[in-house]
Amino acid sequence: MTLEERVFERKRFILDKLVKYGFHKIASEYLYETDFMDGDFHAIITISEKGIITGKVVDVMNEEEYAQLRMENLNGVYIRSVRSEYEKLLNKIADACCTDVLFAFDQANRITEMILEKYDVQPDFPWEQSQYQSYGTFRHTDSGKWFALIMNITWDSLLKDKNKETVDVINLKINSQDSENLTTIKGIYPGYHMNHKHWISVVLNETLSDNEVMKLIENSFSLT
Prior knowledge:
With 224 residues, the chain is an alpha+beta fold. It is built from 7 helices and 12 strands. The mean pLDDT is 94.
């Protein structure tokens, strides 16, 4: 995950605010340039209309991209200070031009809204450990039992393929006799950290439609 992706992981851009902040719309992109570190470095931030952000930091003295910024194994005092000032710049943009969202993937946020509309339930975030703080549980209002859990995990957690890119998934309860058939469907996997006979994990990256995911949620709601 890049520095930019980390800062804006649970943010969504408000395009009108980008222009007010100082971004220039060029074709289908928004461009912002500024100096920092007393003019020693120049930042070039580009945001697509779909909200994909890329950044480039140029060392003004030699007019070359400052590659050390991206090398996480380099932690000298000066490199850390450049990285810190660049992150401050990104966070200022986030504060001025973005709205917060609960989950990293758009489909996860849409599904959250659909659950709220259908069941009048919003997620709670019960875990204190930092790596689990973004995990959201959806509970029955009467019993407190959860019927869905959205997590951001690596693909390796599902596929054991050493892919460290992350994806939002939703854990749902199923009838045990349906397990084998459901997990043959693209986008549906045995439940992550759950009993594989009774739970599935569904990736929320548009592999399944919102309506297909909601049907599985409705089944989980009934079973729990």
